[in-house]
Amino acid sequence: MRVIALLTAYNEELVMGPVLEHLIGQGVEIYVVDNESTDGTVEIARSYLGRGVVGVETLARKGYFDLTSVLRREEQLARELPGDWFIHHDADEMRVAPPPYQTLKEGLEAAERSGYNAAEFQEFVFVPTKQEPNHEHEDFRRTMRHYYHYAPKPLHRLNAWQRAEKAFTLRGGGSAHRVDIPGMRVFPQPFWLKHYICLSREHAIRKYCQRQYSSEEIERGWHRKRAALRPEDIYLADQQELKEVKEDGVLDASQPLREHLLFQGSRSRS
Hints:
Oligomer: single chain
Strand content: 15-25%
Number of helices: 7
Radius of gyration: 18 Å
Largest sheet: 10 strands, mixed
Distance between the termini: 52 Å
Order of helices and strands: EHEHEHEEHEHEEEHHE
Number of strands: 10
């Protein structure tokens, strides 16, 4: 069975290498859609061609982030590429299968054998903290150990699916995180998504506060707080406010948050 991650990226050179290495180790192939990065993201991706990465292309940015065109291109690729399963994947994510499965591929094979054609991911957002504010290095996965469980709605990250011959979409409801396919049957055991949303406060400012968004998408209610983020909105939590990864690597899905803690800068001024 071939599993292909449709990985979209923009200026993600800090995490691109480790994420590609992780996916390859999980038995997943990668097709990279780069949104006109100005750093070394594309060069890193191309260095993996033929050894896990099956393609790298550039999608025009239009001077702003146009999520609709990104998702439309992913839908096209999921019809054209020879994958059995696909994953909508951002460059700052590390996805794993829960025990007892050793790899993403093994977990999705189990889902298919059981008659399911889609899988969801519980999202665990790893963040820098007041005590450890800077992780801008290749070993960020080891040093960033504090997280919160983000779950704004049920099946928030429903974005792995079996090849669909009939019409399907990633744009239903304006969410980049949910696939909608005919006759969808969701595997009852969630997979895990470790979201390394930023590596430092300065990285968050560069990544989110300097980004321009499609005005049409903002009018539709997409992008939420990110469309108007200011540097003072970036909040580094105290480690006591967060969960910490245990030695066995098990992640705690209790007490989920409906809003990103990282973007609650008003807390630091209250």
